[in-house]
Amino acid sequence: MLNVGKIAFIGGGNMAEAIMRGLLHEDAGAEICVAEISSKRRDELTTQFPGVRVVGDAAEAARWGEVVILAIKPQQAESVLSLIEPAVTLDKLVISIMAGIPSSKIEANLIPGCRVIRAMPNTPGLIGAGATAVCSGRKATSGDLDLGHRIFAMIGTAVSVEEKLMDAVTALSGSGPAYVFTFMEALADAGVMNGLPRDIAAQLAAQTVLGAARMVVETGEHPTLLKEKVTSPGGTTIAALHALENGGFRGVVMNAVKAACTRSKELAGK
User: What CATH number is attached to the domain comprising 201?
Assistant: First the structure.
């Protein structure tokens, strides 16, 4: 159970939905309200979450909630913060899941002394398998950070980091599912190229990625050690790994994460 009575979401998109599902599934004990500008989406949320209060006014939701979660696009930050600013009093905790927007910018657009937490979840949170990093703003307390950590632990794994590392988190785990989906697609295409039916290749690729990830998490062993257990001298796996090295596979992945990190900083105006 969370030590909070009312949680308000500003924005009712996929990540807000994922967090709400986690809170409801874990019976967190909090009432939930979501403010969504789209009437079509409000209807969908009302149908999916009959026990959740759904409104069209962000300020109304912010006024109602004890915890206010900003689940909006970074491009909407200034206009939405301006809208809810009169409703956010010092007794409220603001949690932002906006990519690239520093806590200092949120603090500067709300009442002086407001408590702000930042979080970067990812899309697997939709199925309870997310990876989220949380960090605290200037005025947030250790209790605030703990509450944020517990909220996001309800949709997967949550870790705490310093705010200066949030762009790296965005680039690694925030954007990371897209890299994995691209790898899975290429793996399945390779199976098709070598004669497998498309549906079987896709199924084997997905299960292989899932199984490999579970082995890392559940055994606690380093990926290098697990890789060595698959790699026999003179066998098929070492031949494939040699081809990956020749193609610069690891360097390409590292460059991709670096590019995403750079773009995250650009979006924040750093």
Answer: 1.10.3730.10
